[in-house]
Amino acid sequence: MQVNEVVAYIQARKDRFVADLREWLAIPSISGDPAYAGDVRRSAEWLAGHLSEQGFPTVEIWETQGHPAVYAEWPAEDPDAPAVVVYGHHDVQPVEPLEEWDTDPFKPVEKGDRLIGRGASDDKGQVFFHTLGLRAGLAASGRAAPPVTIKLLVEGEEESGSVHFADLLHAHRDRLACDAVVISDTTMWSADVPSMCTGMRGLTEAEVTLRGPSRDLHSGSFGGAVPNPLQAMAVLMSALHDADGRVTLPGFYDDVVPLTDEERDLFARLPFNEDEWLQSAGDSRAAHGEKGYTTLERIWARPTAEINGMWGGHTGPGGKTIVPHEAHAKVSFRLVAGQDPRKVQQAFEAWVEEHTPNGVEAEVRMQPGGVRPCFSPIDSPSVKAARRAMERAFGTEVLFTREGGSGPEADLADVLEAPLVFVAVGLNGDRIHATNEKVEIPLLLKGAEAAAYLWEELAVALR
Amino acid sequence: MQVNEVVAYIQARKDRFVADLREWLAIPSISGDPAYAGDVRRSAEWLAGHLSEQGFPTVEIWETQGHPAVYAEWPAEDPDAPAVVVYGHHDVQPVEPLEEWDTDPFKPVEKGDRLIGRGASDDKGQVFFHTLGLRAGLAASGRAAPPVTIKLLVEGEEESGSVHFADLLHAHRDRLACDAVVISDTTMWSADVPSMCTGMRGLTEAEVTLRGPSRDLHSGSFGGAVPNPLQAMAVLMSALHDADGRVTLPGFYDDVVPLTDEERDLFARLPFNEDEWLQSAGDSRAAHGEKGYTTLERIWARPTAEINGMWGGHTGPGGKTIVPHEAHAKVSFRLVAGQDPRKVQQAFEAWVEEHTPNGVEAEVRMQPGGVRPCFSPIDSPSVKAARRAMERAFGTEVLFTREGGSGPEADLADVLEAPLVFVAVGLNGDRIHATNEKVEIPLLLKGAEAAAYLWEELAVALR
């Protein structure tokens, strides 16, 4: 395969690529709003038609209990070649507040190198570069089929919680059998600093209720002589972290895959400006977290306990001198590589039980399930192969990032039992989920180029 | 003065006393509900008429910005005799839920020894025994005027916060000049165990706001790397008490008048059943409070810090994985003899400032004013005199209690610069502020008897 031929193929089809993408972006496939259900289906049908046109021998609409997904398969010539699932989604976020958009979110506009419209970066643009890349790879190599079997799975419910996605994976597990999963739904560090995500934090959520007296008590008559559930809650919640910002649940860190020195070095080479980051964090006044870790390490690679909500007693205007009968808190844990949401849930339940003072009754309700963290070691064969493909496209070293939260990625890794590889060209500045979402067209073309190289790199790596 | 003559006088007028009281109780003088403003005034006018009938040479209606008070004065024969203000109130609590009353709250009913109706115990009945007692004392002694000048002040806003009471006291300070204030608006331990209140806790209230980021943050993207105001609030509130249940504000206990051994002994002699008390405390499961003190000492004679309300972040159904931008707490302090609400306010403000972590901004709003604690040492001349009067009436030793909360009593002590003495015959079982309020008629008559003796005891003690 000649690099120049790949680039030449992509450049020659650039206008058509953008025109097709604009057509798709014009379909308001907002999965979170039932009023747009027909549009989500129209988006799936449009994509299915496009993928057929692009030469995929198999294209199917896969129904779910909610919105449909699109599945397209392009088998390798060699029946023993590895298979790779490529994941993306064709649904988009809502667009409110509409008045803050400079252009119609569903009338995509090109401004210089930018394509502006809902879904341009998240995730239609990033699904789209794969077909261009695949065809560029085929054209440059002169072959009729890719060096790995490609199984493109484009979900229709990612922006509304992927509620039926695990079921979909289970239902089609045999068809989706693969050696690796390529996720194209994340971001790079910046246009100048290409990077790959290697992990996403998982999540488990709980609600704690502490009960004291059967009714609110007059604090003059009873205050100071019976347990106050709000005080007990303050003590409980304050005990969740130690003075070093570490979570105190017994065993919480036992299974955590530690950051390697190499990964910490590569993180540290990212041009990170903490002041700018704090500004983006709602003008936070200071960084704060687990001792011994940088901000990026804290949000990407370290688990946390966070109080998301807390309430009890009198919360209206003015004073009310009571001992409240109940206190409530919502707590969530972000989990990293190696941690099991169920183990953390059990540890939390036991910890609350143990730390509830005499005279107060505790109830812990865990949100069922939880999200498992996902993680791709930087020295794994598929990550190395994808990194080579990215480096060939970008002509520079590719660094590594992680993400602090996650969607359905862990389901893919768990159900398909395959390593994840993150290949994406979105930017943090793409304003995904916000108004005036955009994508950098040159980066989409770089993504297509990386995708062109990806299959031959993976074919070698996964053998 | 002959005891028998006092008792005989009271017994002879018992039916008339109850009939008059029933007439007054029928007036729904609910000060907290503007719809009853006319009834509160009618209650004042009825009382003024009654006091004139009973022989008070001076009876006046004193206007306030809110509901009127009644003032009646009966000068001693000796112009150098001490003067005593007697405090009570003629307004009553609301009566909801009406369907839980067995009888109409404003159609007083006698059942055996009980008189049932709103205000029977709190406070019309207890105001009423004073006139009967005063006339019994005069009749028994054969004198036309009492041995001390009696200045009866019956407020009309006690049940709605006594909002204009301090102004009223300031406006009439010269008329109200006195050597002691008798408060008849509390309770005894039980019908078998007569007792006198000797102190009431004061109060100061605050609202704390902790601010972090300017908006709620996604806990996946930012969690674990910026301060969480709810966590900071939990740490702050948990630090308000130490492991022994003591309040940690610097200097908080410095000015507290300690319980004397004698007072602790007398408290301990009260037949207190902690299980029953816990049941009355909303079925609380365990006593809890400052180490080294009994439950009665904790609620009567020890200061406290209580979280009355706390809130922030997501408090609705389901999960929301955020770092909240704000956290709030309402805190109140019950204060005891010697403590100054302003000093505690200042200490709290400084303490919050000092204990707020880097990156979080704190705001403390104190409720203006606060309620000063009030306290009458058990060995003070006026308390000893009143105790003798009570013991003569009840024929048994009178023990001491205190109250955990207070109304306008501290204003009386502060503005009139006179010691307080609590003479009352209500019971905790009288269901004041609740449905089916009642009073024990024999106790009202004992109250009248104690009041008959009180003036000669005080005349001696206050000389």
TrEMBL record, chains A, B:
Question: What is the native source organism of this protein?
Answer: Actinomadura syzygii
Keywords, in A-Z order: Hydrolase, Metal-binding, Protease
Entries under InterPro entries matching the protein? Cyt/Met_Dipeptidase (IPR051458), Peptidase_M20 (IPR002933), Peptidase_M20_dimer (IPR011650)
In the record, biological process GO terms are: proteolysis
Q: Name one GO molecular function term.
A: metal ion binding
Q: Name one Pfam family in it.
A: M20_dimer
Record protein name field: Dipeptidase
* Annotated NCBIfam families: PRK07907.1, PRK08201.1, PRK09104.1
Judging by the UniProt lineage, the source's domain of life is Bacteria
Residues in Peptidase M20 dimerisation domain copies: 199-359
